[in-house]
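Bumping with the actual sequence this time:
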Amino acid sequence: MLKMFNYKKSENALFNDVVDGIVDSARQHIEGVQNRKEYEEMQSDVCENLVKYCVSGTRYEDRFEAEGLDLVKNPSVNGNRDFRENFDAVIAQVINATLPMTMSSRFADTFMEIHHIGWGDTARFIVDSNELYQVNELAEGIHRGALQPIYNNEIVVNPQPVEIAVSIDWYLLASRKFDIGVWAAKIARSFENYVLAKAIAALIGATDGLGAGYVANGVDVNNYGTLAQRVSAVNGGSAIYALGTSVALSKLVPSTVGLQYGLGVEITKNGFLDRYLGTNVIAIDQAIDPLTINSSAKLMVPDDKIFLVSANAYKPLKICMEGNEITLTDLPEYTSDRTYTFSVKVRLGIAAILGSKHGVINL
């Protein structure tokens, strides 16, 4: 997963402590909690600091020292506009920082580019033509051949709003038992699953535009070798690597019996070879359809396709985020005295732009 993230630091030290604490909790939840006791103690401190910051600057600030977290149970407090604005500011920055943690780095590094654009802007991509000039043979005395114009392509991506409606129980927060790290990570993972599902669908849908010469059916030495050579040649002789799930990549095994000797240990250990016929082999992290977690557990990255990609190619998937902020909007019709229900909105645009040729092997 991606380790790099950032958010807007505030001049308010308490605000920074609260955001850092929640982000660190989310990180530990995503990577696996090592010390459960220390984690739970940290959650208690984070809950206290969160409420302390939310009441800061309000008329209830002086009451925090005497009442502590119980103050948040008061509907006059948790319904106060300034209190909720402080809470929204914290959560928006937490999601901004947590979302990149959930992204598969191996998928993002090979297939995906993430761009931030201004509010109301349209993302514009210029794709250089991969055509070559034809060399003309001239007769003596001929000045030149026919002019050969080569045109680049221009593609635009328009973000659109997507949202998640979530709620928080003030009484659970007051009890110090609210695991806000799990809650924040779940919101981020939900957006990440949405992005990955849309990205995979766009990538597979764009495969039809590659041309018959860049699609092969079945893995054998001739199919794989020929397709790898084509992808390399059309991208200026660049190195090629194979991408797919570990299940798909497990099919990349020499069919000749004599060449299989000695490979059993590596395949048993990793599930696939790290190199095959001169290409590097990289596994894509799998993801699950969130709507099927408790039913069919449908996986989103296909196990029946292997992608051959150039090392210096345009990344085929463009993820555009409009603005650099998460928008929170309260939903009063679903909010009671004990809970706060709000909508988390992000403006995203997702498109497959085949600026460079890549190959697909259908298993």
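The tokens above came from a reply further down the thread. The chain is about 35% helix and 20% strand.
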